Amino acid sequence: MHPISGGRSAALSFIVAATLAGAPAFAADMDVAGVRVPEQLSEGGHALVLNGAGVRTKFVVKVYVAALYATARSSDAAALVNSAEPRRMRLQLLRDVDSKSLDDALQEGLRDNTPKQELAALKAPADRLSRLMAEIGTAKTGDVVDLDFDARGVTVSGNGKQLGRVDSPEFARALLRVWLGDNPAQASLKKALLGN
Questions:
Q1: Where is the signal peptide (predicted)?
Q2: 150, 84 contact by CB (below 8 A)
């Protein structure tokens, strides 16, 4: 076997590794409803890959593009919800939405996907989420809301500015079920987020 120069060797190793992993050697961003959705993101030193993305519509109005990122792709909703690995739900607004409407939709999704007894136990973290969402004010077309999930809870950011955390693993799982639960906000969006 002939030695290969350092640069070519590294490039060849990358292509071989990507091929063996079953991934394309060069990932491509997606376009969803005119919004560029990056194929990869970095969160807290972890590389996150796009699991899936789709459009949230309400009464035929396109509200936002949702993109789910994880450390590894999965089409198993329960595995994604229950994972202790970093995950990000990115919502990019397709129209102006006041934070109360956004929060109301999240709270409705929590009620639809959480047993009543568990929901009652999650009242304090749900109230904390409402306060964080209120800090966003009116989200304008193109604004980005990031929900970063980890083993300890969820961090809320608006346009890259961290607004605060909700430290409750149980609440983080309940919040992710808004999109990935048995009664998701939108069945077609759940399917898209799972990469189907």
A1: 1-27
A2: yes
